[in-house]
């Protein structure tokens, strides 16, 4: 079996496993979240006044967690390509230089996320205080019409804040996880290990939510979305390993060709 065919076969298997994991998580979320599209997009509502959003259960913990993790899953591909772009820009860095470069990036993104999370936390507290002062409750339809512009404006502010915070959190997660996994020595994890992790997480979700099938589907969807991000990071490390191996092979062939030219000229 040639080197390229082996890499192609392993990459195809990992891609198919990613599709199965993503499809399972999306399917569980579709069964659990009845208003899936409205909950995911967080569009401000013009008729229903569930705090300006159309959502099936805005106070349900599993619905909120699943919404955030599924959005993270859907946007996981873009930061992966950005990480590959950063890695390809610095192919000749030494180990200490590479460590310094990634430390600066991660510290900047971490500080920005902490600042953004803190400002958003106080923003949500302010919005909650306003809704409490004006006597607006979730699902309460009889409100004063003069408060509708205020509610819509606050809803759009919250929508923009959650979108920006989520994008930066995804970027931080998808750039830091492959780097630290590589530092711990787990350069590649075989598919058998991934299947064991998947089965173990499914059994844990089943044991935690045995009486209620809806909660089991919600937990399973959250678990699958988290596992999808982990598999994306491992696949990124796999392709980086392939690119590094091909680069070394090409470099050795080039050096060997130069030596042959020198010996033939002599």
Automatic annotation (TrEMBL):
Alphabetically sorted, this entry's keywords are:
Membrane, Mitochondrion, Transmembrane, Transmembrane helix
Statement: the UniProt record of this protein carries the keyword Calcium:
no
State whether keyword Mitochondrion applies: yes
Task: Give the UniProt subcellular location, in the record's own words.
Answer: Membrane
* Predominant location: membrane
Q: Which GO terms describe its cellular component?
A: membrane
Protein name per UniProt: SecY-independent transporter protein
Protein species of origin = Prasinoderma coloniale
Q: Which gene encodes it?
A: mttB
């Amino acid at each position: 079996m040639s080197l390229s065919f082996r890499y192609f076969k392993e990459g195809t298997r990992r891609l198919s496993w990613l599709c199965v994991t993503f499809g399972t998580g999306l399917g569980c979320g579709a069964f659990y979240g009845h208003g899936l599209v409205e909950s995911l997009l967080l569009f401000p509502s013009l008729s229903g006044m569930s705090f300006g959003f159309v959502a099936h259960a805005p106070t349900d913990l599993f619905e909120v967690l699943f919404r955030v993790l599924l959005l993270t899953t859907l946007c996981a591909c873009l930061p992966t390509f950005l990480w590959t772009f950063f890695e390809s820009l610095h192919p000749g860095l030494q180990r200490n230089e590479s460590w310094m470069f990634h430390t600066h990036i991660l510290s900047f993104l971490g500080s920005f996320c902490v600042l953004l999370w803190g400002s958003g936390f106080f923003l949500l507290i302010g919005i909650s205080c306003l809704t409490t002062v004006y006597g607006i409750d979730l699902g309460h339809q009889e409100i004063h019409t003069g408060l509708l512009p205020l509610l819509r404006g606050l809803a759009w502010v919250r929508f923009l804040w959650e979108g920006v915070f989520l994008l930066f959190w995804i970027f931080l997660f998808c750039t830091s996880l492959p780097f630290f996994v590589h530092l711990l020595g787990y350069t590649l994890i075989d598919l058998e290990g991934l299947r064991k992790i998947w089965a173990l997480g499914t059994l844990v979700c089943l044991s935690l939510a045995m009486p209620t099938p809806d909660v089991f589907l919600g937990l399973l969807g959250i678990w699958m979305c988290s596992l999808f991000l982990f598999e994306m990071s491992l696949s990124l490390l796999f392709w980086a390993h392939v690119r590094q191996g091909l680069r070394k092979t090409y470099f050795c062939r080039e050096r060997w060709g130069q030596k042959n030219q020198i010996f033939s000229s002599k």
